[in-house]
């Protein structure tokens, strides 16, 4: 439980939700739980492997028994590694698809069977910007595209069941601790090209969590089966440092970044933003300077 998932948990708890966070690593769960509780929020933890359908079903059952309801489900778990498709093994492909696609299905089905099928609810699946493929990450691109299609189908099939809504959030490149998982060459490349999209910057964790909160809220009650791209327009056009007719601004964005958590709310959250590489944290510091009006 880190990065975007951690941010979403904090935002929902800060808005008064009783949050249950789940993952395989209990130490990370306990750390986030402690952060939320110190700030006055409600947070329980559960250890789960989302690839195990029986385990996900038991987890949903336990949540309903303890909380009495399950209003919302946010599927943020997933993982991948960088590899050209020509070097990707069948086992590597299957592992990523099993976690990202099959795991998301297991959670959705468990929520439907265990509560939402009879009482309704809202599901948000976190995917990725996959419109034009994901070079060097074909496995996760295929899985995320599958989730987007699954989301649309579930919206159609499950909408009549007491008003279930199922939507996706597709983040583009986000300044987050998740970038620590890439090797030095990759994140140096990502950091140096951060301006090459129509917004001339990457996104923040809080900009993704804000989209999640919106889709979970009553104001989105007529939104069902959509894939909301939170990507600064990068799914429409990616710039190139040479030979590009679209002249994005290498000096930085003119569009302020929203940094609502962890350091955006009048310093209520006194937690370091990310444990990402220095170049990535430097981007966040740069974005804060143009986003002060949003705090």
Automatic annotation (TrEMBL):
Q: What class of enzyme is it?
A: oxidoreductase
Reactions this protein catalyses: a (2E)-enoyl-CoA + NADPH + H(+) = a 2,3-saturated acyl-CoA + NADP(+); (2E)-dodecenoyl-CoA + NADPH + H(+) = dodecanoyl-CoA + NADP(+); (2E)-octenoyl-CoA + NADPH + H(+) = octanoyl-CoA + NADP(+); (2E)-tetradecenoyl-CoA + NADPH + H(+) = tetradecanoyl-CoA + NADP(+)
Q: Which terms under GO biological process does the entry name?
A: fatty acid biosynthetic process
Q: Which Pfam families match?
A: adh_short_C2 (PF13561)
Give the keywords, sorted. Fatty acid biosynthesis, Fatty acid metabolism, Lipid biosynthesis, Lipid metabolism, NADP, Oxidoreductase, Peroxisome, Phosphoprotein
Q: Name one GO molecular function term.
A: trans-2-enoyl-CoA reductase (NADPH) activity
Predominant localisation class: other
Q: Does the keyword Transferase apply?
A: no
Where in or outside the cell is it found?
Peroxisome
Q: Any idea of its EC number?
A: 1.3.1.38
Q: In which pathway does it act?
A: Lipid metabolism
- A Gene Ontology term for the protein's cellular component: peroxisome
Q: Which residues cross the membrane?
A: none
What does the function comment of this entry state? Participates in chain elongation of fatty acids. Catalyzes the reduction of trans-2-enoyl-CoAs of varying chain lengths from 6:1 to 16:1, having maximum activity with 10:1 CoA. Has no 2,4-dienoyl-CoA reductase activity.
User: Whom does it interact with, and what assembly results?
Assistant: Interacts with PEX5, probably required to target it into peroxisomes.
Q: What is this protein called?
A: Peroxisomal trans-2-enoyl-CoA reductase
What species was this sequence derived from?
Entomortierella parvispora
């Amino acid at each position: 439980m880190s990065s975007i998932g951690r941010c979403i948990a904090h935002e929902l708890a800060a808005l008064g939700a009783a949050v249950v966070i789940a993952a395989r690593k209990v130490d990370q769960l306990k750390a986030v739980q402690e952060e939320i509780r110190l700030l006055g929020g409600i947070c329980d933890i559960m250890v789960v492997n989302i690839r195990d359908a029986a385990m996900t079903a038991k987890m949903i059952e336990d949540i309903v028994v303890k909380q009495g309801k399950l209003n919302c489900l946010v599927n943020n778990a997933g993982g991948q590694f960088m590899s050209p498709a020509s070097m990707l093994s069948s086992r590597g492909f299957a592992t990523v698809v099993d976690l990202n696609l099959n795991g998301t299905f297991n959670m959705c089905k468990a929520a439907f069977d265990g509560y939402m099928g009879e009482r309704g609810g809202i599901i948000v699946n976190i995917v990725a910007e996959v419109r034009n493929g994901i070079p060097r990450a074909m496995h996760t691109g295929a899985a995320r595209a599958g989730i987007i299609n699954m989301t649309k189908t579930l919206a159609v099939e499950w909408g009549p069941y007491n008003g279930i809504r199922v939507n996706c959030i597709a983040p583009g490149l986000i300044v987050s601790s998740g970038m620590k998982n890439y090797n030095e060459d990759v994140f140096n490349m990502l950091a140096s090209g951060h301006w090459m999209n129509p917004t001339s910057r990457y996104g923040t964790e809080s900009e993704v969590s804000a989209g999640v909160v919106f889709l979970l809220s009553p104001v989105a009650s007529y939104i069902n089966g959509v894939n909301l791209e939170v990507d600064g327009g990068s799914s429409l056009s990616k710039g190139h440092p040479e030979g590009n007719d679209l002249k994005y601004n290498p000096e930085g964005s003119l569009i302020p970044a929203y940094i609502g958590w962890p350091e955006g709310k009048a310093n209520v959250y006194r937690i370091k933003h990310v444990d990402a590489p220095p170049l990535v944290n430097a981007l966040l510091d740069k974005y804060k300077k143009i986003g002060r009006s949003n705090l």
